[in-house]
Amino acid sequence: MNPFISFIGGGNMARALTSGLLRNNHPAERLCVSDPNIEARELFAAQGVCVLSDNVQAVQQANIIVLAVKPQALAAVAHDLGTQLRPEQLVISIAAGVRIDTLRRWLGGHSRIVRAMPNTPALVQAGATGLYAPSEVSAEERALAESLMRAVGVCVWVQSEALLDSVTALSGSGPAYAFLVMEAMQAAGEKLGLDAATARLLTLETIFGAARLALESNEEPSVLRARVTSKGGTTERGIAALEAAGLMMAFENALQAARNRAAELATLLDAGDQA
Ligand SMILES: NC(=O)c1ccc[n+]([C@@H]2O[C@H](COP(=O)([O-])OP(=O)(O)OC[C@H]3O[C@@H](n4cnc5c(N)ncnc54)[C@H](OP(=O)(O)O)[C@@H]3O)[C@@H](O)[C@H]2O)c1
C-alpha cells in the first residue's frame, strides 16, 4: 500500500510534490496537507487531497511527514509536533539550512529524520534534490524518502550533512546562476542587434538544448565543449574571452560563498532557538 504522506505547510514546494505524486499515481486520499490559509487548502482540496488547518491532526495517520514550512516557521511547528510523533513515523524536512540535530531537538528527540534539499525547477518536475539521512534511518526509509522526492526530479544522496551545504550552493542556488547567465547572454545578444524576443528565445533554447545534449550524452561537458570548438573558429574566440574574464574562478568563488552562507544560516537558526 502507498504510504500516507502528510505535508505541514501547503506552499510552492508542497504543491510541486503533491502534483508530482498524483501524476505518479499516488492516491489523493493518501495525501494530506495542513496549512493555516484557506486559499492554500482550497488548491489541494480541488485535487482531492485531504486538507486540515491543524498540524497535530495532520500527522496522526501519516507514515511520512514532510515539513514544508519556511525555515523560520519550523521551530514552532516542530515543537508542537514533537510530543505527537510515533517513533516509526518518518519525517522529511525540506527546510533549507535546518540541521538534523537542531530539528531532532525541536522534535523532542525524534530520530527518523531525512533532510532533502530540492530546487525551484521542482515546480516544473525538473528538480534536482540532495538527500541526507543519519544512520538511524533504515534503507527502506531512505528508499521511501527518495521515491517521494523523485516525484519532482532527480535525487542524489550525500554521505555527510555538511555536503548538503555544498548541494545548496550548487543546485539549490544554481537556478539563479543559470538565470544570470541567461540574462547576460540575452543582453549581449541584444547589443549585437537582435531584438529582445529573439535574443531571449535563442538564449533559453540554447541553454535548454545544451543541458539536454549533455544529459543524453556519456561525455563530460568539457569534451562536448571541445567538440564544438573548432580551431580558429567563432566559439574558440568566445570561450577565450570568457576564460580571460575569469569565468571558472568566478563560479568557484560563487559556490564557496554560497556554501559558507548556508553553513552560517544553519548555525544562526540553531543558535536563534537556543538563545
Ligand atoms: N521553493 C524552493 O525552491 C525551495 C527549494 C529548497 C527548499 N525549499 C524549502 O521548502 C520549504 C517550503 O518552501 P516554499 O517555497 O514551499 O514556501 P511557501 O510557499 O512559503 O510555503 C510554506 C507554507 O506554509 C504555511 N505555513 C506557515 N506557518 C505554518 C504553520 N505553522 N503550519 C502549517 N503551515 C504553515 C505558509 O503560510 P503563510 O504563507 O501564511 O506563511 C505557506 O503556505 C522552505 O523551508 C524552503 O526552505 C524551498
Summarize the entry for a quick read.
This protein is α/β, with parallel strands linked by helices and 275 residues long. The protein has helices at residues 12-23, 38-45, 55-60, 71-82, 100-106, 139-149, 162-172, 174-191, 196-215, 221-227, 234-244, 247-274; strands at residues 5-8, 31-34, 50-52, 64-67, 90-93, 113-117, 127-132, 153-157. Helix 5 (100-106) links the parallel strand 5 and strand 6.
Would you kindly provide a written description of the structure presented here, covering whatever features stand out?
- With 275 residues, the chain is an alpha/beta fold.
- It is 55% helix and 13% strand.
- It is built from twelve helices and eight strands.
- Strand 7, helix 6 and strand 8 form a beta-alpha-beta unit.
- The mean pLDDT is 95.
- It has an eight-stranded mixed sheet, with helices on both faces.
- Helix 7 (162-172) packs across helix 12 and helix 8 (174-191) crosses helix 9.
- The longest helix has 28 residues, at 247-274.
- The protein has helices at residues 12-23, 38-45, 55-60, 71-82, 100-106, 139-149, 162-172, 174-191, 196-215, 221-227, 234-244, 247-274, and strands at 5-8, 31-34, 50-52, 64-67, 90-93, 113-117, 127-132, 153-157.
- The protein binds NADP nicotinamide-adenine-dinucleotide phosphate (NAP).
